[in-house]
């Protein structure tokens, strides 16, 4: 794998993460779909600009031309992403790996089990039964979301967690984003250090 290819992949992932945060109604989900009122009689209309609960998932699996369609789709009825997770993964990983990734990464929503200890969030924790750190799920401020996603897709995360046997088809050069994070968070808003 060339350095140019790795840099292009990283640039694509980072661009998607940055663009995905640009919405005036961030965090508001309307299960009736993009452009529908939030509730009967409500004057507030939900405008879904980017569906990006899990950074790196759409950027890795979806063709760029599919992004507009899936951005406007209801996450539990996405006509594209679910199939593309499996078809993309089958190009270089085992069927069991592809099926497991599809089950974990679709739908593209952040899941949390509110009956669990809310002080221990862990990205993909709900989907993996706590294998990534806690069953609460969600996403901790210092979770390396892109790194975790890339390692699940291209690395040995799923087999290391005991979810599936190792298919020995890892692509180590793609399993890391090589972006460091010093985790020097604060106890006051905005909780993270200034951008570099």
Please specify the SSE layout and strand pairing.
Elements: H1 3-20, H2 57-61, H3 67-71, H4 81-89, H5 95-105, H6 145-154, H7 157-160
Helix pairs in contact: 4-5
Write a concise synopsis of the structure shown.
With 196 residues, this protein is an all-alpha fold.
Distance between the termini: 28 Å
Please tell me the total number of domains: 1
Radius of gyration computed on alpha carbons:
17 Å
Q: Quick one: overall form?
A: globular
Largest sheet, in brief, is: none
- How confident overall, as mean pLDDT? 79
Structural class by sheet pairing and helices: mainly alpha
The total beta strand count reads 0
Strand content: under 5%
Please, how many helices? 7
What series of H and E elements makes up the topology?
HHHHHHH
Question: Regions with pLDDT < 50 over 5+ consecutive residues?
Answer: 5-37
Helix content: 25-40%
Account of the 3D structure:
The protein is mainly α and 196 residues long. It has one domain (3-22, 49-174). 32% of the residues lie in helices and 0% in strands. The model is unreliable at 5-37 (pLDDT under 50).
Core attributes:
single chain; 196 residues; mainly alpha; 7 helices; 0% strand
């Amino acid at each position: 794998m060339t350095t140019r290819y790795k840099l292009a992949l990283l640039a694509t992932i980072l661009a998607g993460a940055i663009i995905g945060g640009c919405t005036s109604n961030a965090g508001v989900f309307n299960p009736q779909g993009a452009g529908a009122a939030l509730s009967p009689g409500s004057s507030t209309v939900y405008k879904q600009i980017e569906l990006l609960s899990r950074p790196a998932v759409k950027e890795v699996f979806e063709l760029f031309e599919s992004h507009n369609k899936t951005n406007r789709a209801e996450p539990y009825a996405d006509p594209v992403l679910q199939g593309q997770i499996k078809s993309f993964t089958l190009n270089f990983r085992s069927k069991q790996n592809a099926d497991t990734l599809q089950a974990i990464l679709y739908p593209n929503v952040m899941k949390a089990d509110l009956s669990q200890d809310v002080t221990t969030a862990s990205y993909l924790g709900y989907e993996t039964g706590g294998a990534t750190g806690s069953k609460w799920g969600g996403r901790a401020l210092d979770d390396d979301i892109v790194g975790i996603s890339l390692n699940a897709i291209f690395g040995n995360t799923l087999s290391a967690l005991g979810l599936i046997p190792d298919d020995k088809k890892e692509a180590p050069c793609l399993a890391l984003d090589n972006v460091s994070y010093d985790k020097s968070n604060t106890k006051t808003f905005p909780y993270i250090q200034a951008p570099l």
